[in-house]
Amino acid sequence: MQFRTLGRTGVQVSALGLGTMNFGAFGNTAEAETTGMVRRALDAGINIIDTADAYSAGVSEELVGKALKGVDRDDVVLATKFRLPLGDITKLGETNKHGGPNKQGGSRRWIVRAVEDSLRRLGTDHIDLYQMHRPDPATDIEESLSALTDLQRAGKILYIGSSTFSAAEMVEAQWVSERRALARFVTEQPPYSILVRGIEADVLPTAQKYSMGVLTWSPLASGFLSGKYRPGVEAEQSHRDKLRAGRPIPTDRDDTLKREAAEMLHTLAGEHGMSLVEMSIAFATSHPGVTSALIGPRTIEQLEAQLPCGDRVLSAEVLDRIDDIVAPGRTVKAGDSHAVNPALDAANRRR
After folding, report:
1. Is 192 a catalytic residue?
2. Nearest 5 degrees, angle CA 116-CA 121-CA 125?
3. Which of 19, 108, 109, 253 has the fewest CB atoms within 10 Å, i.e. the most exposed one?
């Protein structure tokens, strides 16, 4: 497993990280299996584990905490996130079922509560990397950074990061940290895959400008690069689709374009003696601005299929061929960027 420096922190992290969104009701609730995946990942050389309080309403953090019992804490870079409501992720659109509107967001009031809850669920006395899961337009970023700075000084968290921020929001946060002498985000966690390359145009250069580490998520583009969705092949409904009220296989125009691109990528991978999964994950770690790609297996079989990708290096020829299929900086389906610009909401554009 390759190791890389996380921004300018001096901390070494593996080129692949274990994302645990699939631990809990959204994926796998079996403690023995999730513990087995964590231990297998650690044995394979992965040393960064990422979770969030919003994943299955805190259950993911609990399962990660149980899996790490007996593990040398210094061998693990433990990352989690705050900001999103702790609703039931299996019921799309559900609001926070654990309380009122203040049990979410970027306010000091919520952050100091959220970190204590995460520490308890994870069974640890400190969090290595505490990330703001999304921007909070309702809260001044100085408010969030001030609270995070105090938690850092108290030793409850060591580093702070952002997740799915736009380049402009990243710059604003860096500016506020400098002007107000506050802790700064040292990492960004954006979506990135062959089908979702928008961050190459602005987020990755901005992260490089500020020497931020980048932990990318969804290298398989929510299954489109797993080989599941192929033109002319009737895909079986995935575990995630079943949980989401049996939504049909995506069939809109942009999803059709994604399936067509994935088919060409499948052929390309085969020509070079690797699977589409291997090529896709290796692509995510090939950009010089990316520190680590977070994989999110639901089963041990999925994990085993993805672990070899940590050592895969793509040739210039393969990367050029990928660029021909999906151009640099292009996101095939705009909504897959997951970065929401509140300025484009109707309420903010009309009197």
Report:
1. no
2. 55
3. 253
